[in-house]
Here is the input.
Amino acid sequence: MQANPPSPVNLDTVRVLVADLREARPAVYFADLLFSASVGWLLFALAVLAVPWSIKLAAFAVSSVLLYRALAFIHELFHQQAMKGFRATWHALAGVPLLIPFLLYLPIHQGHHSARSYGTVHDGEYDQFHGRFRHMTLKLFALNLALPLALWVRFAVLTPLSALLPGVRRKVIPEFVHMALRMPFRAAEVKASARREAYWVEAFCALFGWALVALAVTGHAAVLLWWAAQVIAIATLNTVRALCSTHLYVEDTEGRDARGQLLDSLNVGGGLLTTLLCPVGLRYHALHHIAPYLPSHALGVAHARLLQRLPAGSEYHLVSVDTLREGWDRLVGATCPRPAVQADV
Here is the structure.
């Protein structure tokens, strides 16, 4: 007896069910960011200064998780762009000192939600894993090791050069470091309305990059080394998240509408581990693709409401898994072709 197919998600119904959750609450954003970043940097300082290695490593581990959480607000900056004061605070506490400012993410993410480019070669947050899962996984983790140097070159070297040689900004920078999963990838130009702010942030990143060098040559090389380790640790956490809780990464020649993006994405349940690896609402990635306007602090309530109100066995239920391991298994199952079973003669 054939199982009934899952009932399609009606996006108009979803909008009605979550309509009261659309308003962002800046106080929630600020409280979360200020706690995560301030405690994270204090623990980073402890990791640099402490003598016993047990304390160093413990402080470093916790600081990595907290600063990863602070940095994760970069996703909210795109979808809640009216909060300019929060964006400035985020840059001061996370974006600039980690050399991962919003300008590296803005031109990439604006194409990710597009029905024309999602899941195609034009989507910088997507790549083809089908048939090359092991290769892509190793590639992502290897790129994390080179990220601190790449970020330093991007801002400490290319930013000053671009002021003297306009061709560097037009030809080199768009293809160098950005927050794209797909490598190589040419990022779109930052829109004119955001360009002035982006230039200022870029200048602060360049100054911070050279401040790291100044610390190293004045006898404080440990700060630079621990900073590089921190960037690698944060990038690694984000890679694990991407592999376990985002998309199926099976590329197509045409984009996908909101329903197609939902079916290609995941909502992940679980306890503390999911909370740590998928902070700031990133555990509800499938929900985000059908309601990208919802602030992160509303996603948990919205998810529970949709599970309760949508018909049992709906497509929304289909893309919700209980653990990160289930998310990993779903990615492996979608991207690793099974060998054909030969019939006995």
In short: The chain has two domains: 28-256, 257-330. The first strand starts at residue 267 and ends at 268. Residues 257-330 form one domain.
